[in-house]
Amino acid sequence: MNEQHFAYRLRQHLNRGLHELPDETRLRLEDGRRRALARHKVAVRHSVFAGVAGFLLQQADHLRLRQVVFALLVALGIGTYTFWHAEQSISELEVIDSALLSDELPVAAFTDKGFAAWLKSSASQ
Question: What ranges in the chain are assigned the alpha helix state H?
């Protein structure tokens, strides 16, 4: 028996037992069901705001200034390191390009596989 078949049989059994309940109990159950469905509809209407901005606005009361400052410092540190690393790579490539352009090498040297290996080894030093 799969899950859907079980749910169907359970619903049938509960519906049959509903007629055996006293009227007062059945009215209380119907009232509780109506209230639960009313709350459920409200929750579905507000689920549009479940995006990042809605989450941040909802959680803004719980954030502390120390946490926000720490997160900004980490982001600033990562950005600074990335910028510095890119500048270092560019300056290394400029040195290699300048050395290659100022030297009088034949064009065949640039297509040589050993020359490419030499460039990689000299760049890593």
Answer: 3-18, 23-46, 52-59, 65-102, 107-111, 113-124
Q: List the Cα angle 21/40/36 in 5-degree steps.
A: 25
Between the alpha carbon of residue 66 and those of residues 53, 54, 91, the distances in Å are 20, 22, 37
Kindly report the pTM of this predicted structure.
0.35
**Spatial CA neighbour of 26 closest among 11, 15, 41, 36:** 15
Extract the tokens encoding 12: 């049938």
Spatial CB neighbours of 9, under 8 Å, sequence gap ≥ 6? 1
* pLDDT tens digits, 38-79: 776 554 454 554 566 666 666 666 667 778 788 889 999 999
Residue 26 to residue 33: CA distance in whole angstroms: 10
Query: Is residue 96 within 8 Å of 119, Cβ to Cβ?
Result: yes
Q: Tell me the C-alpha distance between 107 and 77, whole Å.
A: 43
